[in-house]
Fold 3-sulfinopropanoyl-CoA desulfinase.
Amino acid sequence: MNKAQGFGLNLLTRFAASDLIDQLKMRKLLEKTLYQGSKSGFQLLGSASRQFRPASGTGKQRLPATSKNLFDLSLSDEQQMTRDTVQRFAAEVLRPAAHQADDQANYPADITTQAQELGLLFYALPESYGGVASEQSVVTNVLIAEDLGHGDFSLAASILTPLSVANAITRWGTTQMQEKYLPAFGEDTPLSATFAVLEATPAFNPNDLKTQARQTDQGYQLTGEKTLVVLGEQAEVFLVAAMLNGKPNIFVVEKHDTIGIRQNPAMGLKACQTVTLQFGNTPAALLTDDDFDYQAFLDLGALSWCALAVGTCQAVKEYCISYANERTAFGEPISHRQSVAFMIADMAIEIEAMRMLVWNAASLAEAGKPFHREAYLARLLCNEKSMKIGNDGVQIVGGHGYTKEHPVERWYRDLRATAIMHSGLHA
């Protein structure tokens, strides 16, 4: 069914590229048909997938690496179809809702519902657990994050959080963890899950955590505090980073009365409803038993945040181009001034550099090759350039850029999170 859906939408997409529909004045109708058709197709796909449940004794599931010989920037038909759908969702749903979500510091319930209709969670689940994933899809996940980030950074992070948890459990979870939690992500009301990695310590080092885990007869118990936990109050399950025997590891924690939750509003990420979690001898279980790679866990999280930043920076650039062409001063558009034109040109160059580094690292990760160096370089560049682009966006709009009248103010605040967040998302 997935191939049939892709074939049908591919035909529609090819027809959309022809000049005939413009002559017949059918462009708007076809665009609406493409969006609704792809959305309905994902709903149908999700409905069918939910009929699958893991059989007893299925065993631990691991998605194989994608077979690649070269760094190929071309997208498959399925990836392009996914991008087209996500881009429309970001433009038609996320962008219009972003201002109010930020102003009210709330992740709207209707956004949750509409995001579920996209069926993105099923790309994280192996077929044996009700999903459609047959191999690792790091590049596709990065593309989804970039396109959602183009709609809104904060709402996109909220949407991607449960998808990221499902990715992590699929990649590293034990058989018990997978059989217990993965089917819940494919239900009509998916499992609400998030990460708890960051700590409120100066120069936070994710390899030297204050949160500690100790083994007991019943399993493990956690003590410590985590900050800026995305959607932490609503989450039913947490993936928590903690030290065990002097080494960092990831633990699965279900909501428990030993977890203290307090509001922790931040400069940006308002729609993420970030909170601080206090663990007081909280019961926990190890995510994995033998093949866990903590550095890869951090690197994949960094790539997701970087992809969000690339999408949001693209939105900043496009908004500034439109504004500079329309805003006149001394009888001409301000885009005619070299200082403004060069600033926007620098944005375009920096965004392409960010995108290439992120895509390169994701491609290597998907192929099962070492990618730590590339992910580190991508994070360094995105940390620096995303904040610069956000700042330049405010600068180009001028005094109005500092007010909520223009979205560059919100994008500037959200983009600063790129250099702060460690994991919390997972490609």
